[in-house]
Every structure is written in C-alpha cells, then in structure tokens.
Amino acid sequence: MAELSYIFNFLLKWNLVCKNYWKIPLEQVGYSIGWAVGFLTLGTVVDGLGRRSTFILSVVGVIVLHVGISVSVDFIMFLVFRMFSGIALAGLFLSAYVARLEMCDPPHRLVIMITASICTVVGEMLLPGLAELCRNWRILQGVVTTPFLILLLYWCIPSMFPESPRWLLATRQIGKCKQILQGIAIGNGVNVEDELYTQCNLFNEMNSVFEKPTQFRSYTFCDMTTARTTWKNILILGFTTFIGNGIQHCFSQNLVGYSPNFYLKYFVIAGAEGVALVFLYFTVNKFGRRGILLFSTIFTGLSSLLLLALIQYLHKGVHLTLSILGLVSACSVSILSIFFASEVVPTVVRGATLGLIMATGCIGKATSPIMDLHNKHGYFLHHVVFASFAVLSVLCIMLLPESKRKPLPDSIKDGENQRRPPMLLFRNKDRVPLLHSKQNGNYNPESYSKLVTSTKKVLANNIPIQSQDPTRGSVIKKTQESAI
C-alpha cells in the first residue's frame, strides 16, 4: 500500500485516469515482481559475498535507480526503473534483516526484529504527509532518496555495519572473523591484550581447532539436495507467508465501503501492521513461535470464513471489526513466518532460503493489484481460495519445530536437527524396576555454552573464569565437521 500514495502524485502528469487507469495496478505488479526477483537472486549473493557487501551494493543500486526514476520522461521508463529499484531494495532489506538477526543472542532476537519493523511502520505513516507537502512526485522521489545517501556512511565506516561473525565462522573465514570480533571488543571497551592469551578465550579456542589455514566454502541450494527437514520447514513457512500477504487484500477490500477517503484506509492498514507487531512482542516469547503462528493462522481463517458465509447477515459494526481483526492476524502471520524461518534455516544458506520465503510473500502481495487489473472481478473466488489455504496451513504448522530461545543453526546438518518436538514426553520402552538410571535431557553443555561464554568475554568487559574442562573447542570442531 505504501507505493499507492506515491503513485497518486503523478496521476495527472501522465493522465493515468479513466481508460489509462490500468497502468497503476500494472506498475504495482511490476514493483512486487521486482522485489520477488531481488529476493531470489540477491539472496544467493548474500550467502556468497556476505551480508555487508550485498548491503553496500544494494544501497548504491537503489540510489542510481531512484535517480533514474526521478528523470523518467514517460511511463515505460518509469515502470522499468521502478521494477529494478524493487530488486535493489529487496537486496538491501534482506541483507540488513539477516545481519541484524545474526548479531543478536537468542533472548533479544524478537525485540530487535520488532523495533526494526516499527521503524518501517513509522515510515509508512509519514509517507502520505510527505506526499502532501511535496505535491510534485519528482520532489517526493528526491526526498525519499535522501536517507539512502546517509546509508553510504556504512561503506565509509566499516565498524558501523560489520560483517556477520557467525557467517564468517560458518564459511571458515577465520582470519576475518577474528578481526571483526576484535573490532567489536575494542568498541565495547574490552582490553583484548589482557584476555587474548587466557585459558578460556574464544580466539585461543579458534586457534586450537583451526590449526591449519582454512579456505572459504560457500553453499547453494545444490548442497541442500538431501536436507529434507530444512526443505519441509522452508515450504511450510513460505506457504504461510504467501497466505498472510495475499489474504490482506481480502480484508482491506471490505474497508472500502466505510469511507471514500483513500488515506483513512491506508492508515488503517499501516496501523494494523503496528498492532500486529505489538501483539507479537507480548506473546511470541511467552507462548512460542509455533503456538502464536498457529493461533494467528486459525483466527485469520475463521475471520475469512465468517465474512464469506455471513456477510449478508452480519451487523455493519461486526463486519468492520472482523475485517480489521482479520487484517491484524494476517499481518501477524506474514511477519512471524519470516522471523520464524530466519531462526530455523542454516546460516550458510540463510540468505537464499529466507529470500525464497520472502519472494513467496511478494507474490501473495501482488494478487491485490492483479485483482485491480481485472476491475476487481473474481474477488469472491480470490477470498475463497486464500481462506481455504489458511485452513489448510493449520495442519502444516503442526509439523514445524520450536525455535524459542534456541541458538541459530549454522551448518546444513544443524538445520536438519530442527524437527518437530515429540508428541509424548517418553517413548514406550521396557524399564527394569529399581534399576532405572536418570538420563540426561536434550541439553548438551558442550554444544553451545562454551561458545556463548567465550564470546561474552570478548564482547563484554567481564572477568574471565578459568575452565577445567579438557574438551575445549568441541563447538567449532562440530561446526567444521558439519560444514565439510
């Protein structure tokens, strides 16, 4: 919906009314396709070149393409530049999303995602005001491009946007990983020289494991041919992302008859996304990712079915309430599906797999202008199809794992361990009375605690604790073996 406010600034410029009105939804479809293509293509670049390099290239591309948009002389030129700007914006959004996620510890991943998404909602709220102030769409294009010029500071000052140490370690770029961690430690006021040679130190652990020089190893979809569990999670979450973005048009279309003001509908849709973020903030960490996604999907499907079956019998206020609540739940489904996917896909292919899931969301979002191309013919069938998909996805969500407060999977083997928890706590096994020995839980202290402890000593000014465990370095060994 954000681009609609932008498009109405040049309706009169190229006479995009009456018989030429079809060009507006065509531009929206092309813009959504550009985002989808950008997610699919630049997602692989994120895993190959890195998060920071892809971000810088995308920023430069966005600036150049926005300049091309502002000097467009006809609609065709404008359409082409808008489509390619969608590709560049998709790379910028994806690289920043992945880098932000990988720099956070498990308890703070949700908070950082919510904060960044709220900034997006605030930008959508400010866009109509900018459009009213600028009036001329070329001036508006220049105002929108200005923040991207500020982002070039990340290119000039690498410490403002460092490369993801997790990705560097997973792809065996040990030298660069040490430089990044040392820079972060110095920025946090940690005296690296005092802790560099202590017994319990991340750098010594890395030196003991990677004794020989390592070579960069990149991964693609071809390396995931046997990763059935990872593909299952990707397909399910891509399906729910597609539904969450596509069904929003069904609910927003019900708001048209209540007010002829375009901006009121626009603010309701943007506000619904903000309410969905607040809802996720207070529920996801408490009840888990899978539980809230299941609840949101069920509520979305029920709201759609009620509006379809009882639209002639519902009171006007009930109809409006169901439409708004359904819109909020649909936004929750799309936002949580992407965040959930980022936590269950491996680091070595996180850019490509997350880009695939986000591309399905763009395709779902493109169904709205496609309906406008046909003068809203087939709206009822569109609503029926997405309501059926929402009900069907409820069964699929039950097959997903739970990622709350769990470490991110780094290798493809770690991604295969992201399975649905068992329905029963204990398996049916014969146990001899009085001889039952207490078994350890699923938590393995050698798998994650050492890396977290050592990293915290580098990133924060803590007193080092001497460890007497002789099995130091098992975490990175395990990561290296799984990557090989």
Task: Give an overview of the whole structure.
- The chain has 21 helices and no strands.
- It has 484 residues and is mainly alpha-helical.
- The radius of gyration is 25 Å and the shape is globular.
- It is 68% helix and 0% strand.
Key descriptive features of the protein:
484 residues
Largest sheet: none
Mean pLDDT over the residues: 81
Regions with pLDDT < 50 over 5+ consecutive residues? 424-448, 461-484
Helix content: 55-70%
Gyration radius, in Å: 25 Å
H/E series = HHHHHHHHHHHHHHHHHHHHH
Based on CA inertia axes, which overall geometry fits?
Answer: globular
Structural class: mainly alpha
Number of helices: 21
N-C termini distance: 45 Å
What is the number of E strands? 0
Residue share in β-strands: under 5%
Concise account of the structure shown:
Helix content is 68%, strand content 0%. It is mainly alpha-helical.
Strand-helix topology:
Blueprint: H1 2-7, H2 23-49, H3 51-70, H4 75-102, H5 109-134, H6 137-150, H7 153-156, H8 165-170, H9 174-187, H10 192-195, H11 202-209, H12 228-246, H13 248-253, H14 262-287, H15 289-309, H16 316-344, H17 350-373, H18 379-397, H19 412-416, H20 449-459, H21 474-483
Helix pairs in contact: 2-3, 2-4, 2-17, 3-4, 3-6, 5-14, 12-16, 12-17, 12-18, 14-15, 14-16, 15-16, 15-18, 16-17
